[in-house]
Amino acid sequence: MKQILILFIFLAGAYTIPLDQVNPRWSLFSNTNGRMQVVDANPLQVDSEPFFNPSTDIQYHLFTRHNPTTSQRLTSDINTVLNSNWNPNNPTRFIIHGVDSDSNSLVSTLCRDQFLANGDHNVIVIDWSAGSNTFVYATARNRVGVTGGTISIFIDNLHRNGLITIENIIVVGFNLGAHVAGNLGKQVTRGRVGAIFGLDPIANLFSAGDTDRLAVNDASYTEGIHTNAGGNGFAEPLARATFYPNWGSSQPGCGIDITGNCAHERAVHLYAESITSNRFIGRQCSGYQQILTQNCPGIGSGTMGGDAVKTLSGVFFIATNSVQPFAQN
């Protein structure tokens, strides 16, 4: 009977189901591609880095207006940067995908195109799929620290060679990539990253007390955009400024979103649109409790997303359209 129940859950594509009656250690959740994955509720029992060497397995794909769709591969060898289209006078943007994904993910392609449309940037799409694509999610979750740390070494090396201004860097991370971005910011040694945008930071096997998650002080400015809060995404505010579009848990236009994947990915669409738009104006709430009660009269306003380092702080509500363009203002 238990086997039949589990099979039904997989076929139905249910969102997060504890398997308490079978084995209290395991549960199921929907990854960024809408497929079901097994979650180990006790990640300490899982080897955190089998078959993953971050110093060699993480890939850095450079896109510029001279090569907007075909990347140039960079490595820790600074000559690969010097012999590329890299322009040290241009702002630099990093994009980091989530679990079970790669450099061709939605966040990578949408944000890359919008950054290049908005300005002459060095856009680096990080591919850490060798570490993120695992059957047991806890293994990928446990790699966020070493992945972020390895990328920070790459950034420090660029700065050491006069190729980057760390304070002007913007990092965008979706899903598990939001926590990789946070760890990157924590471990850069030659300055402080300008801004980190965490797009619906994943909640599974993270808690408010964890030190390896996205946090307020990981950059000069940190912003969270929560679109599936309490589902795939973290519910509580993690960043200096946190936006909850349409109250954060579900999104208009997603219909019967059983896995929550549509709402989860909405954060990517909203941020990508915001890169070339300043029209996502939210109203500031007095605190997270007003998000939970869906009652935020507003004590101020703030613009969500964008392609700049900002100085906002607090919790914000914003209403959006159900289809593109999502901005209502």
UniProtKB/TrEMBL annotation:
Gene Ontology MF: a single term: serine hydrolase activity
Compartments it resides in: Secreted
Gene3D superfamilies referenced in this protein's UniProt entry, alphabetically: alpha/beta hydrolase
InterPro entries: AB_hydrolase_fold, Lipase, Lipase_N, TAG_lipase
Signal peptide range: 1-16
GO cellular component: extracellular space
This protein's UniProt keywords: Secreted, Signal
Top-level taxon in the UniProt lineage: Eukaryota
CDD domains for this protein: Pancreat_lipase_like
GO aspect biological process, one term: lipid catabolic process
Main localization (coarse): secreted
Domain Lipase: 49-326
Entry's family note: Belongs to the AB hydrolase superfamily. Lipase family.
UniProt cross-references to PANTHER family, sorted A to Z: FI01825P-RELATED (PTHR11610:SF150), LIPASE (PTHR11610)
Protein name per UniProt: Lipase domain-containing protein
Lineage, uppermost ranks: Eukaryota, Metazoa, Ecdysozoa, Arthropoda, Hexapoda
